[in-house]
Design a protein that fits this description.
8 strands; OB fold (Dihydrolipoamide Acetyltransferase, E2P); elongated; 2 domains; mainly beta; 5% helix
Length: 114
């Protein structure tokens, strides 16, 4: 798995790049640089949306949001961005969020309650 990492906040692919920089003729420094490795298609899909919680299981920590455009998007409790510890979501609650294309389909990130 050398060179492949995951950003834990957004679950986006991150690529490790090692760069060697010479300081003198005999001394060089190796730097590890991490960068998001997204194709243009995925970047376009990161957009702000509003919608309502279709259903959410607080015990299991996941559910679905119905966007105002009519699409359903997966919601995981780790993506609920609340200042307090109250990350419970309830059916019919209005939220704003971004959408990324995950391996299993569209997923909500940066979810905030209205």
């Amino acid at each position: 798995m050398e060179g492949q990492f995951t950003n834990r906040t957004f679950d986006l692919p991150v690529k490790k790049v090692i760069k060697t920089i010479p300081l003198t003729n005999t001394i060089s420094v190796k730097l590890s640089i991490y960068r998001f490795d997204l194709c243009e298609k995925e970047r376009v899909q990161l957009a702000s949306y509003t919608g309502v919680v279709k259903w959410y299981d607080n015990d299991r920590g996941y559910g679905f949001i119905s966007t105002n455009e009519g699409n359903d998007v997966f919601l995981h409790h780790s993506q609920v961005k609340e200042k307090s510890n109250d990350k419970d979501m309830h059916e019919g609650e209005e939220v704003s969020f971004d959408v990324i294309q995950d391996k299993k389909g569209p997923s909500a990130i940066n979810v905030q309650k209205f």
